[in-house]
User: What shape does this take?
Amino acid sequence: MPSDMYKHVQTQTRGTVLVFGATGKQGGAVAAALRAKGWAVRALVRNTAREEVKRLGAAGIAIFEGAFADMASVENAMEGVDAVFSVQPHSGSAGSGITDAEEVRIGKSIADIAMRSGVRHLVYSSAGIISRGRTGLPNLDTKIEIEEHIRSLDLPSTIIRPATFTDLFTLPGFGLDQGTFSFFVHPDQPFQAIAVDDIGKIGAQIIEHPSVYAGRTIEIAGDEPTGLELADALSHAAGRKITYHRFPDRVLNGNEFLRRNAKLFEEGRATGNADIAALKKEFGPLWSVSDWLEGPGKSALQAALASDDRPLALR
Assistant: This one.
């Protein structure tokens, strides 16, 4: 999380929001956007000694110690808040230690507690990849279960479904240090992407206007490059040639999880379903991949270019 993420904080308080995942990318972006708009923000964390937590506290975010294994701590953090931003750790996150069943339990429990606590608006961050129904991948279909549960409650709620994160394009391990980038789409196939800063911007606006957004499910993305256009953007930002390759069949055939994800992209089910023009009209300017790589993503890109991690395509 960039150290300047919480600059320009206003002093006027508009209300109180509990943001889950505030030490992560999505939650951190939402917390930053809300603080910049003058909201009081709370964060539930397991380890108060972490540097990320100290930065949150220094930015005026109220820190509540607790864990999802102890729902009483969640209930305590949620007492008296106006809104909740809910995003869960999941089995697909490296080192999360979360099973698919636990993700569902946590997502449903947060919604239940929000309803019992009289929260006026719950915003749940799901995933764009489920926009056309079940995928057959348990770590993705968990979000369908959570969505359905939230909609069944007498609780004003909004569901956002982000597309592929632009941050993925600057991670080590995708071949950037070797002058390539590998992903699921074919070179000429377009797919949607969104910067986490824009998730924060959109999430904050939704929280700020509950009467406008309650009851809606919104697919969100800021750009729709092809694999080749992504390579051009990476090359321009890197100052050197980056070529794009779809993960080769030998890699996909040797890894069931990657193979099934690639199939979802090939079928168009995972490439995104957002109306980007309408989103820009409603939420204002959103980052294009090229501008993001030249701006907020520049330092991460440079780090990935210098990394010696083997690309996924060669593992």
